[in-house]
Amino acid sequence: MADCAASPALFYASILNPFKDDMPNTKAYFERLIKRPSVKRTIAEARPYFQYFPYNEKMPPRFLQG
Questions:
Q1: How does pLDDT run along the chain (66 residues), one tens digit per residue?
Q2: Which InterPro entries does this one have (predicted)?
């Protein structure tokens, strides 16, 4: 349940302020999180709406590609 609550906030935070090496635990947790099938599916389903995200030009290509 905590992963479900954390994933949207971490997703958008990673776009605005990417996790650097001084946050190894957060960075590793986020990388594990986005590899989960449920999170991959959610990102894929949200992809058509990324154009409306105010900072879409900062979004890493790995999230934009299907």
A1: 788 899 999 999 999 999 999 999 999 999 999 999 999 999 999 999 999 999 999 999 999 987
A2: Glutathione-S-Trfase_C_sf, GST_C
Spatial CA neighbour of 29 closest among 49, 55, 15, 10:
10
pTM of model > 0.70: yes
* Structural domain range at position 41: 2-15+25-64
- With both helix axes pointing from N to C terminus, report the angle between 24-34 and 37-46 in degrees, rounded to the nearest 10: 80
Residue 59 lies in a domain: yes
On whether residue 10 sits in a domain, the answer given is: yes
